[in-house]
Amino acid sequence: MTAVMLRRARKKAATRAQILTTAVELFSRHGLEAVTVDQISEAADVGKGTIYNYFKTKEDVVVAFMADIELRVQKKLGRLAASEGPLDLILVRFIEFQFRLKKQYYQFVRVFMGQMFMHTEHFLPYMIEMQKVIDPQMETLFLRLRKRGLVRADLDLPQLTMAFKTMQLGLTALWAVEGPPFRQTAKTLRHEMKFLCEGIGRRSC
Fold it and tell me: Which fold is adopted by the domain 57-200?
């Protein structure tokens, strides 16, 4: 890649990040439905057409931001799979790390969760696209944990991934509803991972 191409790629990445950051700030303050693309354009100091070069709809912006956070979470999975400790602690660390990343965007996550639950049919295509990023990495995590003898060999990995994500979604909803300092969420997280490990672990968690 030439120097010119690198500069263009960096500029495009910076513009996309500026749009996402600005949109998230507006969504957090006013809600998804109240914010227009014109408002995002003005606040981000980019043309409306530029926004549409990156995102077709406001929902695209929302899902892209959440997908970016998920990608940061997935990058930690390799280290988690090799970390010391019992299975339930490893899974607790994974979800705690996700919550730490999302904490600074707490109000936005509340907006996202509300829209997702209220308009599930509309958000479903976007969620499917996010799962294409998340699922392979999660299955790899459980595969590595299986090789370490922490997960039963007879379990179907896609089904295990789905079960774990379902628990994770419920915990994220609790986290969004409860708010700081998230004491009940932390307590419930530890209990749920303990119960899960009693079913999927090869040995006592």
Answer: Tetracycline Repressor; domain 2 (1.10.357)
